[in-house]
Write a structure and sequence with these properties.
single chain; alpha+beta; Thiol Ester Dehydrase, Chain A; ten-stranded antiparallel β-sheet
Length: 284
Amino acid sequence: MVARTLDANVLEQWIGKTEIQLDTIDAKQANLMAATLGSRQVFQVEDALPDLWHWIYFLTALPTQDLGRDGHPQLGGFLPPVKLPRRMWAGGRFRFTTPLLIGDAVEKISSIRAIAVKQGRTGALCFVTVAHEFRVDGHLRLTEEHDIVYREDSLGDQPAKQLPVPPQGAEIVATVSADQTMLFRYSALTFNGHRIHYDRDYCRDVEGYPDLVVHGPLIATLLINHAVAHNAEKELRSFDFRALSPICGEQAFTLNQKQGRADTTLWAQTADSVLAMLASAEFA
């Protein structure tokens, strides 16, 4: 076990660390994902995998005793041993070359690109950026940069946070609700043991959330599906997103879209008009 630390000089030794995973994009997993999102689509070999559904593949299976208190794998292997207890998916950037297809044998090459220790409003923070390349027969299909932020435990005496305000002028809006069943299924499909998505007592008593938290990647997937559905005649080239505020409980939230000159602005907004996620997509 590697000692956990906030010493930037130690953590930065993980920059450049690389791992390679192999997986086959099988139809069964894609069909389970479709059912989770409420779709009756049935995928077959050579069908294109919808964007961001690659997250339900390349899963890491660790014994339960190798998990931390939050249900995530303990740190100090591929990811640096950050001495902070809370972990969040802060955002990501994607560049699409050619769609992954059902039946493809895919090589995923991951590397630690950046690590930064900072002091935030609520205490110490550590940002880790992981880059991923997805290749089929050596040909690049997709690149991803994944931002992870590690934080201290929530304290009752923290200063009030100013909630982010969503953009105005949405042109296309859809309303969704991620209930407990959807959260459970998505956690199962991604083999994600993070307890904030299924353990209410842990959410409230340990991490300070008012209720179960909707997965950031799930919100991003819903946003990109929303954008692609309304740009069916175009090809998606890039997608970037930032998670700004959690969506908790089974409240309905909206997926919003506004077309700009160069790209499409997307955002997820809670029922009480808080900006949960801001994204942009570029189509060609």
